[in-house]
Amino acid sequence: MARKKEFDPEKALTKALNLFWLNGYDATSVDDLCNEMGIKRGSLYDTYGNKHSLFIKSLQKYVINMYKNYSTAIQTESGIEAINAMFTFFAEESLNDAEQKGCFLVNSITELSALDPEIRTFGIEQSKNFEQFFFDLLVKAKNNGEINSSLDLMSSAQFLVNSFFGLRVSGKINPNREFMENIIAMTISVLY
After folding, report:
1. How far apart, in whole angstroms, are the C-alpha atoms of residue 155 and residue 30?
2. CB-CB contact of 8 with 26 (8 Å)
3. Alpha helices, DSSP H only, in 24-152?
4. Does domain 7-58 have CATH number 3.30.390.50?
5. Which residues fall within 8 angstroms of residue 30, CB to CB, at 6 or more apart?
6. Burial of 177: CB neighbours in 10 Å, binned 0-12, 13-18, 19+
7. Among the CATH numbers 3.30.160.40, 1.10.357.10, 2.60.40.60, 3.40.50.1980, which is that of 74-189?
8. Are 172 and 95 in contact (CB under 8 A)?
9. What is the pLDDT of residue 74?
10. Where are the domains of the chain?
């Protein structure tokens, strides 16, 4: 009969996520994780596998939460307003982050994608998801007559993904409201 866990795996995963997010993968040791999560090494390995698999689970949890957050932020019939709302939502997140952690997804991709094929693949998948998300909003905006009808929507979606990831990096290094609002305004202006 399996022993009952003496900790909440989801709460412990959230603690691991926050530690990885703050320090990055390489700078976070297994001992750091165990201390933060309030568990022993054996429990970490039994529940999550190894450090790498715990990191992947943390990254997946972050992305699921991120999708929930932005899907709530874009509840509007206007495609262009939804795009603007998404950029604004995450700019506000950066402006309100006292630790200047940036985006855990973007941080992880930039830290590890050259060395870790699984993270690289995950990053490509998420980039494609964002591309499709922006493409769908651009179709809505085009159908509503909100954007330049001659725009190539796929190229524009790819541009928005790049701008979004760039905004997330900028929010980490320069969380200045005027600076970020200027980036958003310029990004949106390209669509008219």
Report:
1. 42
2. no
3. 30-37, 41-48, 51-73, 79-95, 104-112, 117-143
4. no
5. 41, 44, 51
6. exposed
7. 1.10.357.10
8. no
9. 73
10. 7-58, 74-189
| 3-state class (DSSP) for residue 177 | helix
Question: Which residue matches tokens 């992880």?
Answer: 108
What tokens were used for 90? 């995450």
pTM comes to 0.88
pLDDT tens across the length of the chain (192 residues): 455 667 899 999 999 999 999 999 999 999 999 999 999 999 999 999 999 999 999 999 999 988 887 777 677 889 999 999 999 988 999 999 999 999 999 999 999 999 999 999 999 999 999 999 999 999 999 999 999 999 999 999 999 999 999 999 998 888 899 999 999 999 999 999
pLDDT tens readout for residues 34-85: 999 999 999 999 999 999 999 999 999 999 988 887 777 677 889 999 999 9
DSSP 4: P
Token pair for 141? 């905006």
Compute φ and ψ for 96, nearest 5 degrees.
Answer: -95, 5
